[in-house]
Amino acid sequence: MKDETTISPTRLSVIIPAYNESHHIFDNLQQVCKTLLGHNFEIIVVDDGSQDSTFEESQRGVADGCPVKSLRLEENQGKGKALYHGFSNCSGEIIAFLDADLEIAPEHILQLWDVMRATGAEVIIGTKVNSLNSFPVLRRALSYMYRRLISFLFGFSLTDTQTGIKLFKREVLELVIPRLAVSRFAFDIELLVAASRFGYQIAECPVRIAYNREGRTGRIGLRQMFGMLVDTLAIYYRASFWRWLQPGLATKLWMIAFAIGLFLLGIGVGKLITPLVLQPPMKQIFRIIALQFLPLRLRDCILLGIGVVLLTMSLIKLNKSILDAFARRDHGDLNGIYRRK
């Protein structure tokens, strides 16, 4: 099946993580091989502890003449771990990640490669923004909220970070993968955060998705949603100024004292202002600002909530500013990464 005449001398490695995909993995590998026919490529299939015959079916591709290497993890360790394991066993200068179900057609690999050559970017990610109309409304809403969260926490202007097709220059993954800790729900975010911290350029390429999953959210259930949120917040912490600073006990106590002092100051100011007699129109303006038209208990709860939100948002924004202002000290993970240039 493989043509000895290659269109490009650059070797492409396509890493495909697979979990319980035995019913179509062989046919899908044939489709990938057909798409890349004429290129210098290899396919690395990593069976992530499947409970069916995914590994055996992927090995059929080897017997059929496809340049396929089949690997197997004894236990299910997550998509990220499977991709990282595949990378450690590949030889390509360009590395592509592709989902085994081929909801994203393998033809898009070549499109991402074209974008990489045209832009010079070291990382190209597929974005399914033009295909969202095929997704259930609830799935679209969840995706939108998660994208906004990612944008707020990490400052990414990327349209989509979770699409299963991505393309990397080998040097990126060689630097980034040793620093990663997440292997399941939010590994894409950690990968892109580390790549951006190294100063690599990330570009996007629109892709179409043949969405054929059942249910309003597809494979994403409550467990996956919670896991993704926990992993994302853990990545934020590891990539943050607070992890970089590694405050000692005394510093932590002063931080707590600051928060308590801020709270007490707010109560004190509120008690001082409340008995003041204001003249119109300031009286009406203050009545609105201080929510005095609401029941006392409800007003206090709302003001408390606003205070918590403002404090949280200000800390996140301060974290971004401080990271930009301080020289980084490398801890070997996501924080303190020195740029290459």
Describe this structure in words.
With 341 residues, the protein is α/β, with parallel strands linked by helices. It has 2 domains: 12-242, Spore Coat Polysaccharide Biosynthesis Protein SpsA, Chain A (Alpha-Beta Complex), CATH 3.90.550; 249-325. Helix content is 48%, strand content 11%. It is built from 12 helices and 7 strands. It has helices at 25-35, 54-63, 79-87, 107-119, 137-154, 170-176, 187-197, 222-238, 241-245, 249-273, 282-289, 296-325; strands at residues 12-18, 41-48, 68-73, 94-97, 123-127, 166-169, 202-206. It has a 7-stranded mixed β-sheet, sandwiched between helices. β2 (41-48), α2 (54-63) and β3 form a beta-alpha-beta unit. The longest helix is centred in the last third of the chain and has 30 residues, at 296-325.
Short summary:
This protein has 341 residues and is an alpha/beta fold. The chain has twelve helices and seven strands.
Q: Which sheet architecture does the biggest sheet show?
A: 7 strands, mixed
Structural class: alpha/beta
Give the radius of gyration.
25 Å
Taking all residues together, what is the mean pLDDT? 82
Order of helices and strands: EHEHEHEHEHEHHEHHHHH
Individual helix count: 12
What's the architecture of the largest domain in CATH terms? Answer: Alpha-Beta Complex
Number of domains: 2
Strand order of the largest sheet: 3-2-1-4-6-5-7
CATH T-level fold name of the largest domain: Spore Coat Polysaccharide Biosynthesis Protein SpsA, Chain A
Could you tell me the number of beta strands? Answer: 7
pLDDT < 50 stretches: 1-7
Oligomer: single chain
Helical content class: 40-55%
In whole angstroms, the N-to-C terminal distance is 43 Å
Strand portion: 5-15%
| Shape designation | elongated
CATH H-tier superfamily of the largest domain: Spore Coat Polysaccharide Biosynthesis Protein SpsA, Chain A
- What CATH first level of the largest domain would be assigned? Alpha Beta
